[in-house]
Amino acid sequence: MKKFYRPEIDGLRAIAVIGVILYHAELVYSGSQILSGGFLGVDIFFVISGYLITLIIYNEYKEEKYFSYKKFYIRRIRRLVPALVAMICISTILAYFVLLPNQYLTYLNSIVSSIFFTSNFFFHFEGQAYGQNILSANPLLHTWSLAIEEQFYLLYPIFFIFIIRYFRKNYKLIIVIGILSSIIIATKLGISHVSFNFYMLPSRIWELLSGAIVALIYKDNKIKIELFYEKILSIAGLILIILSFFYFDDVNKHPSYLTIIPVLGCCLLLICHNQNNYANKFLSFSILKKLGLISYSLYLWHHPILSFGKISGFTGLDNEILLNKIFLIAISIILAILSYNTIEKKFRKKNNISLKKNFIFFSAIICFIIVISFNTKNHQKKNFPAIVSDLYNQTWFETKQYFKPCFQRKQFFCSFNKKQENTIFLIGDSIMASMQQVVKIISLSNNLNFIPMTNAGCDFFNVNLKKKKNIFYNNKIYDFRKKKINSKKNATIILHINYKNDYFDNEDVIKNFRNDINKYLKTGYKIIFIYPIPQLNNNISDVLSKKLLIDDHEFNTTMNIKDNFINIEYQKFMNESMNVRNLLNSFKQKNIYRIYPEGFFCNTELLDKCIGHNDKEIYFIDSSHLSSQGASLIGKDLKKIIQNLYKNR
Question: Under a CB-based contact definition with an 8 Å cutoff, are residues 56 and 266 in contact?
Fold first, then answer.
């Protein structure tokens, strides 16, 4: 590494990690998040990694006419694993005391995948959408990017040595083809498979290969750039990165062709290696170099520290306590410095600790973490009152098939008990997705095929108000749903309309909705309308966890007083949902069945109120999504209807 050390690369690492930290810190100014595109710092890390790894492999192979895969992988393990394991050890202790039972269980499940660099698969299949709440309640979510890099390190040396050995004249062209292919894959998958696109190597490999192609250009030294043009290009590269950090704000649009902007900026900085250009002088400032040196440890520590701060309420559930966030960032930097000096530097040097001792030591620690963690699962749960057992339990991700949540599928829908012709379809947004598990149990217990078709932000039929036509992000997704429904004749369709979505006030939306419902009724389908489900003004999990974690002395006394139940006015709810009710009431045909959720949540414990919980159970996970108990209440009526429909089969 020292043969081609460039101080400005450490400065570039510093810029990348600053972007990521400020993004996760959720700093807000005038109602807008500062560095809303800071998540692109990870993409910068990928480019740098591709650049450096290619130089390491290329140098060793060209100089020694041989490449040792064993030595390469040992170096990678020494570089990445010790600091990672140290972070997980400390985080696990904090998790035991800070996380609520469901959060702690998810955290424990993420430990193994983080240690063995498969956490991108874990979080994808768990439905953990990166950027959904920006700073995740899972302290180890950030390890997805380490998994991407390690998977690249596992495959890339074999691929690279193969192409430079057998395609001597065209190996750069092969890498360029790989870059273009991966960009196309990312852009296509970003439309229909957002989570897979974000977390998986095929959509990311072009960023690492972009660094690789720059490294090869640098080593060949065939492109000579005059200092004047280097100054312009390097400044342009830095500007592209900074602008991306400030102006991109939707993590779901990346990686894609849009991500070319920060990646190109990074490549320009890497290809302009003259130490006298302005950008390199700036990136070589002492403070940036030092921050870049500890950037790996800083990346490791900042996310769990900020995550625990948010969960515990230290940085405020409303994200307004700036000084506390700055304090936690400072703690992260201190821990990163300690980690770099006492762990990273020590374990990188092979003469300090032998490979055998390394293996035995870390194997023992990893086994210890896993065994102790899972043995504390039940004990940790006993530290909390029963009412918190379902807090933050994302019920909309519970129902899975082939390891992947059924929620958010656009084309390849889950199908349970598919050999049965009699089919139940569940259609709606994430509110209906929180009922999937209950409907699945009801369907299977009646020997019915169950196909959930739930998607965030979408009800039965959605409309682009500008184009005046049916779409679900695009017409294909809408067509996929209809094609699947049409393939199951005489099926039962359960649907719910979110009364908070104002597009159902539009006449074109209502017209399309009526046409589709009437068509299915005429062709023998049965329709179960689930009428509007109350939506609260407060997040149940946030409020109750704050009472428990911050105001613990008040928790047991206030939770038993009905006046403290989180609630909304019954009449206000009825007024706000009137348009949807009138629409559903207007269908008078036979084969329509109706469920009224207000009977379970309104005028029960409190007169003229709709409540989100009682003193023992929560009905909602947040302000709108049902808990397992809330879904079960609606499921009682649903079960009766379905049993009645299919009793004479």
Answer: no
Q: What integer best gives the mean pLDDT of the chain?
A: 86
Q: What angle do CA 68, 72, 178 make, to 5 degrees?
A: 95
Segment (H or E) for 463: strand 463-464
What is the 8-class DSSP label of residue 619? S
Whole-angstrom CA distances from 255 to 206, 244, 418 are: 10, 13, 35
* The pLDDT of residue 2: 55
E-strand stretches of 228-348:
none
C-alpha count within 13 angstroms, C-beta hemisphere, residue 525: 25
Residue with tokens 């939506």: 535
Structure confidence by residue, pLDDT tens digits, 88-117: 989 999 998 888 888 888 898 899 899 889
- Residue 29 CB neighbours (<10 A): 8
Q: Please tell me the distance from the alpha carbon of residue 137 to that of residue 105, in angstroms, as a whole number.
A: 12
C-alpha distance from residue 502 to each of 290, 367, 496, 580 (Å): 51, 52, 14, 10
- What tokens were used for 150? 């390690």
Nearest CA to 19 out of 269, 228, 262 is that of 262
Question: For residue 136, is pLDDT > 50?
Answer: yes
Task: Give the rounded percent of residues in the chain with a pLDDT score beyond 70.
Answer: 89
Q: Mapping DSSP to helix (H, G, I), strand (E, B) and coil, where does residue 413 land?
A: coil
164 residue type, one letter? I
Its pTM stands at 0.82
Q: Residue 647 corresponds to which tokens in the numbers above? A: 């009793």
| 598 to 61, 179, 294, 334, 569: CA distances (angstroms) | 70, 54, 55, 52, 12
For residue 423, the cross-strand partners are 449
Burial zone of 107 (CB within 10 Å; 0-12 exposed, 13-18 middle, 19+ buried): buried
Amino acid at 288: L
Q: Cβ(35)–Cβ(27) under 8 Å?
A: yes
- The per-residue pLDDT for range 299-355, each reduced to its tens digit, is 999 999 999 998 887 886 444 578 889 999 999 999 999 999 999 888 877 665 566
Residue 469: the pLDDT is 40
SS3 labels along 103-139: HHHHHHHHHHHHHCCCHHHHHHHHCCCCCCCCCCCCC
H/E element, 595: strand 592-595
Yes or no: say if 270 and 233 are a contact pair by the CB < 8 Å rule. no
46 CB neighbour count, 10 Å cutoff: 27
Q: Is 556 helix (H, G, I), strand (E, B) or coil?
A: helix
Q: Minimal CA–CA distance to 547: which of 394, 393, 391, 395? A: 391
- Answer yes or no: are the C-beta atoms of 545 and 310 closer than 8 Å: no
Residue 133 has pLDDT above 70, yes or no: no
pLDDT at 416: 94
Q: Other CB atoms closer than 10 Å to residue 76's CB: what's the count?
A: 17
